[in-house]
Amino acid sequence: MIGILGGNGAVGQQVVRLLHKWNVGEMRVGIRSKNIQTSELKKPSVYYKIVDISDAQSLSSFVDGCEILINCAGPSIHTSVPALKAALRGKIHYIDAGGEQCISMLADRISEQYNLIFSAGALPGVSGVLPRWLAQRFFRPASLKFYCGILDRFTLSGAEDFLEGICYRGGNASSFSKFLEKSEMVLPFFPRPVTVVAYHDGETSGVQNALGLENAEFYIARDGKYVNRALLQMSSSSRMESVRSLCEAADLDLAGLTPYILYLLQMDGISHDNKINSYTMLLKGAGVSAMTGHMVAAITMSVLRRDIENKIGMAAEICNPDSIINGLNDPHTGNYLQVLDCTIDDLMQISGGVL
Fold first, then answer.
1. Cα(157)–Cα(244) distance, integer angstroms
2. Please, what are the domains in the chain?
């Protein structure tokens, strides 16, 4: 039995759909109340159970009999700790789309029977797997340029987690001001010019160190002007005002357009035939929630297949990249993956930016 918290949200629904498609067996889907509509997800092997994430007894009852607990409920800053504690009490595998803040709680813990996996989302998550997978084409990778482009709605939970990451965590105002330093760019595969913002976090450091890169640049490419404006005004707003403002701005940016998430990365280095080479990789999906759900489902399959055993940490650092890419590379779910033997600049010259 696989337990899924937040199973009626956009991420949770994607997880349920994919795991059912991949025939994982029985799933117990946590919902907040019996009034929540579940008709889209009614399957013979899918059962619904009311659960209160803030109540330890309710969580323990939900976890009882499960082999894996998946947390798709948000915001992660409020749900991850109680969900993790329930998994620890039950001594079962735990997979969280977010929850990076929980890793420090487990610094001295050695797991002998189960996995505790965090940041199994779109960013961080997929964003850390792609460079590791592409690096396998090199004998010695040297440099990376990475863009993650997003045009999508924010849920209230998603907006709160996003702002927690760039503004509030640790009260680091300087990281927020750096996040506002931006430039306009035209990039291949993007339908419009985007606002490019450099970012750096635990996952980007992990990628650079794990691959031994001499140089690594990471950027978020924002499609639209309203989210940028909302971010500029947040220093004078309360936390919840900022969350609502971000959601409204994302809706305005998306109006009349199709949501997407697009990863574009170029890696340079010495290939296995001892030549200097460059590869550009593209992964495009139907949106942040869909990609996050796909990543969570792919990690779950890795745990079930025992590709990951007795590990604690961020998903991108402990997973098998081949296994995850095989799970993500599914055009039937709206994903498109391609690797090209050229640079991003080469593509710009060929296409003028839009392919």
1. 10
2. 2-121+288-325 (3.40.50.720), 126-287+333-352 (3.30.360)
